[in-house]
Design a protein that fits this description.
Elements: E1 3-10, E2 19-25, E3 32-41, H1 44-51, E4 61-62, E5 67-74, E6 86-89, H2 99-102, H3 110-113, E7 127-129, E8 132-136, E9 146-150, E10 154-156, H4 163-166, H5 172-183, E11 191-195, H6 199-210, E12 215-219, H7 223-232, E13 236-238, H8 241-251, E14 257-262, H9 272-277, E15 279-287, H10 302-307, E16 311-314, H11 322-334, E17 344-348, H12 353-361, E18 367-371
Helix pairs in contact: 5-6
Length: about 375
């Protein structure tokens, strides 16, 4: 029996706001789960479809890839899940058996990549609006009160922990934390710069702190975000990378930062030369933030890269393994070592999603969260 629900959608690449619609959801098939969503994070990645940094391919389109909920029904071939289970979604589905999963890089799962396009693995949709099949962000569509997801996309968590806080583990918190701990490989005593301290950057600051960084420079033009970053462990702040150069040079006796983590809302290639300028010899720059899909030009000194043996590395989902790291971070939250509550600035009903994104644009939120 189909389920009636509601979801925030885009109908074309010309849309500048989300439209909340009534939708109809089919029963789960095969290895799929029907989940009643409890919360969804307002991640900047969904904003890219509004701004055109990423174009929509299939419409209508239900956004949202950071979410958590409670399983209501399971498909006939599901193993390991049952109704009542509490789950956090992994925005990158992880099959566990492809070469990348087997090699410990399930954030790059070959089979999971097939779900990112927005349809189920059989190429069909389980959600319909205005009589049309809808595609969903990352195979999840957490901007809906219900989702049908492949079991590869769900990670069970203990039911005594609040899903409206663990929701951040589905993308922002895990991505930022992993960018520091895994991709950057922050070591005790390192000097670290985090450029952009919204949802991803706040978690990167916490990851660097837990990894033992000596100094953490939080760089962001928004004063509220810089101030909040200090509560997460930042030791110094600056408005821009250019402004931070002299501060970092002074505080590190000219050695600069061993690790620089880019977690802005939108990255720009012309900024890379300045980023390398605050990076030490043998230092590493981790590019976690998304750049416009059609950007091909990057301004940086290749001589600096070579003579100082610097490294520039991309990172998807913080180079984390969701089935291991989502439960791990949930336990860090339980023990008070990872502050998810402080990262959530405001909550909204789904009907106020556009206000939530406007607050993000205005620099008012570290992370806004939809509560169903």
């Amino acid at each position: 029996m189909a389920v009636k629900s509601k979801a925030a959608m885009l109908w074309s690449n010309d849309d500048t706001e989300w439209t909340v619609e009534e939708v109809e959801i089919d029963e789960p098939k095969g290895r799929e789960l029907l989940v009643r969503n409890v919360a969804a994070g307002l991640c900047h990645s969904d904003e890219h479809f509004i701004t055109g940094d990423f174009p929509l391919v299939n419409t209508p389109y239900i956004g949202g890839h950071e979410g958590a909920g409670i399983v209501e029904a399971v498909g006939p071939d599901v193993q390991g899940f049952e109704p009542g289970d509490h789950v956090v979604y992994s925005f990158v589905a992880a099959c566990g058996v492809c070469p990348f999963c087997a090699d410990g890089h399930s954030n790059l799962c070959d089979n999971g990549a097939a779900i990112m396009g927005g349809l189920m693995l059989d190429g069909t949709s389980r959600i319909h609006a205005r009589g049309q099949d809808a595609s969903v962000m990352a195979g999840l569509g957490t901007f809906g009160a219900h989702s049908v997801v492949h079991e590869w996309s769900a990670v069970k968590v203990l039911p005594d922990l609040p899903l409206d806080k663990l929701v951040l583990l589905g993308c922002g918190a895990t991505t930022g934390w992993g960018s520091a701990v895994y991709a950057a490989d922050v070591r005790p005593g390192d000097n670290v710069a985090v450029v952009g301290v919204g949802g991803l950057g706040s978690a990167a600051v916490q990851g660097a702190r837990l990894a033992g960084a000596e100094r953490i420079f939080a760089i962001d033009p928004v004063e509220f975000k810089r101030e909040t970053a200090q509560s997460f462990g930042a030791t110094h702040t600056a408005n821009t990378v250019e402004e931070a150069f002299e501060l970092i040079q002074q505080e590190t006796w000219g050695r600069m930062c061993n690790k620089v983590i880019l977690t802005k809302g939108v990255g720009r290639g012309e900024e890379m030369a300045a980023v390398l300028g605050i990076t030490s010899k043998l230092g590493k720059v981790v590019v976690t933030n998304i750049h416009p899909w059609d950007e091909l030009n990057v301004s940086m000194s290749m001589t600096d890269l070579t003579l100082s043996e610097k490294t520039v590395q991309g990172s998807l989902f913080g180079s984390a393994n969701p089935r291991a790291d989502i439960p791990r971070l949930a336990e860090l939250y339980r023990k008070g070592q990872l502050d998810l509550d402080g990262m959530i600035t405001r909550t909204y009903p789904i009907e106020e999603i556009n206000q939530g994104y406007q607050d993000m644009r205005d620099g008012k939120n570290i992370r806004g969260v939809i509560i169903y």
